[in-house]
Design goal:
Layout: H1 2-10, E1 15-20, H2 27-38, E2 41-43, H3 51-64, E3 69-74, H4 82-95, E4 101-105, H5 110-123, E5 127-131, H6 139-149, E6 153-157, E7 165-167, H7 170-177, H8 183-193, H9 196-207, H10 213-225, H11 229-235, H12 252-261, H13 265-269, H14 276-286, H15 290-312, H16 316-324
Parallel strand pairs: 1-2, 1-3, 4-5, 5-6
Antiparallel strand pairs: 6-7
Helix pairs in contact: 3-4, 5-6, 10-12, 12-14, 14-15
């Protein structure tokens, strides 16, 4: 619910979350915490046990305070529970929602399909959100849910972070599962992550040979915002399923960021002044080794050189550079977290 709210907020909507999961312990507190994290208001009533009452009051609250989208978070269930199902039917009658979305777990298999069928029969679903789509059991669950309910899969969750949430495009997902990648979604992720004006400024700096370690640090931050490394690999043609995720050094980028953060602003702006004594200090300050500091500086120099060469080419390469600028300055010299 909070991932959906965060996405709608980015699209210019003014959503409010209504905490109607009064069954699971601490569910209301969790929703309040997540709402605060993304800057979305959460309507709740302390001590109230009637979900229908909270839903109606939440809708009134939204109307009075100018919210244009109300997301009612109801109690979840993995098995058919008649009492809770009756509660849901009552909530639906009370608020008359435009959308009734089932959030299904891609890893629960046939059980999720049985629950979806029951929900659709009693509530009349308008769509499905499929979570844990970064797991192995993904295509089968999507096909089964669509076949049984006849309702579209609208969004998929691809990780635990708030931004690990994207529209479901069947053709793109099929390409990922088949190992063919999904460049369109990859570029879209990059465009959502990096500001267009910042990308243009970065491109100009690279063309003037002014790309610094500060810029590299910013690109590492952007890569982190794009989601897990495994989800990015799925989108790159030829890499999906070809790399053992257990061998990916996910701590590599964290160490690289720590090294740059241990430098002074003067050192970040001019890496040429970082001599042996400074490298020892930086290694100590970042909790790494001098060898790792040396490796980062070499990678930076290679990245800087490669990116400058790219900016000299026009047409396709220039557009690719602009579109992918937010994907990490570490790419040309090695994908962050990988040795090269």
């Amino acid at each position: 619910a909070h991932k959906l709210a965060a996405r709608l907020l980015k699209e210019g909507r003014k959503p409010v979350l209504v905490a109607c999961d009064l069954v699971r312990p601490a569910a209301v507190e969790q929703l309040k915490t997540l709402g605060e994290k993304i800057g979305v208001s959460v309507y709740f009533e302390d001590g109230e046990k009637n979900a229908v009452k909270v839903a109606k009051n939440g809708l009134s609250f939204a109307k009075k305070n100018g919210f244009d989208t109300v997301i009612v978070d109801t109690a979840g269930r993995l098995q058919i529970d008649e009492n809770m199902m009756e509660e849901l039917v009552s909530v639906k009658k009370a608020v008359a929602p435009q959308e009734v979305l089932l959030v299904a777990d891609a890893m629960t298999g046939q059980n999720a399909v049985d629950v979806a069928k029951s929900f659709d029969e009693q509530l009349g679903l308008t769509g499905v959100i499929l979570t844990k789509f970064d797991s192995d059991a993904r295509g089968g669950a999507a096909l089964s849910l669509k076949t049984i309910t006849g309702k579209p899969i609208l969004f998929i969750g691809t990780g635990e972070k708030t931004d690990d949430f994207e529209p479901f495009h069947p053709d793109r997902i099929a390409s990922r599962i088949l190992g063919m990648g999904d460049i369109v979604s990859l570029v879209e992720k990059a465009q959502q992550t990096v500001d267009e004006e910042e990308a243009k400024k970065l491109q100009a700096k690279i063309a003037r040979n002014e790309f610094t370690l500060n810029d590299m640090l910013a690109q590492f931050e952007n890569v982190g915002k794009m989601g897990s490394v495994s989800s990015l690999l799925d989108m790159i043609p030829g890499l999906s399923g070809q790399i053992d995720e257990s061998k990916i050094d996910l701590s590599g980028m964290k160490r690289q960021k720590a090294i740059i953060q241990a430098m002074t602003q003067k050192e970040r702006n001019n890496h040429l002044i970082i001599g042996p004594s400074r490298r020892k200090r930086i290694a100590k300050g970042s909790g790494t080794s001098v060898a790792e500091v040396n490796k980062l500086i070499k990678q930076f120099e290679k990245t800087k050189l490669t990116m400058k060469k790219l900016t000299k080419n026009r047409g396709m390469q220039a557009k690719l550079m602009q579109g992918m600028a937010g994907m990490g300055g570490g790419f040309p010299g090695g994908f962050p977290g990988f040795g090269r």
